[in-house]
Amino acid sequence: MKIFKSINKAEARQTKLLTTVIIILTLSFSNNTMAQEKNQMVRLAKINVDPLQLDKYNSALKEQMITAVRLEPGVLTYYAVADKDDPSHITILEIYADTAAYQAHITTSHFKKYKETVKNMVKSLELVDVNLIASAKKSGS
Predict the structure, then answer these.
(1) Is 31:136 a contact under the CB 8 Å cutoff?
(2) Using the 8-state DSSP alphabet, how is residue 141 labeled?
(3) Is 102 in contact with 111 (CB distance < 8 Å)?
(4) 3-class secondary-structure state, position 107
(5) pTM above 0.85, yes or no
(6) How far apart (Å, rounded) are the C-alpha atoms in residues 26 and 135?
(7) Among 70, 74, 96, 117, which residue's Cβ finds the most Cβ atoms within 10 Å?
(8) pLDDT of 66-98, one tens digit each?
(9) Exposure b/e, 106-129, CB count within 10 A at least 16 = b
(10) Contact indicator for 21, 81 with CB cutoff of 8 Å
(11) Helix 54-71, helix 109-118: angle, nearest 10
(12) What is the β-pairing status of strands 89-96 and 122-130?
């Protein structure tokens, strides 16, 4: 008896996108920081945006990301990627120094501004906490 789940194109794209994000995560760290990374909070945010508001959403997202990394010592990394076949499906890799840094981040004025700005643009949001299991990075990059 076959017990295989058939996946549709959207699920296949999400799987491919998630794989890409994991590769980016893996490439974004150097081996000598693994001990420090054990305390880090790593999260994937899977967001489905109203396609008619995608440009406005992307602008608000970029502003929030740049501001957070510039102003908050505990916000270490953001990567935002969009599905090539459906750019309204966005996945964000977020890395914080620790859970306290994340808790501080969501209370900042720039994060609250972002949430207020995009509240009617986001059709769905899924937050997935993940653990870093390995990393590799070319030196100087």
Answers:
(1) yes
(2) -
(3) no
(4) coil
(5) no
(6) 4
(7) 96
(8) 999 999 999 999 999 999 999 999 999 999 999
(9) eebebbeebeebbeebbeeeeeee
(10) yes
(11) 170
(12) unpaired
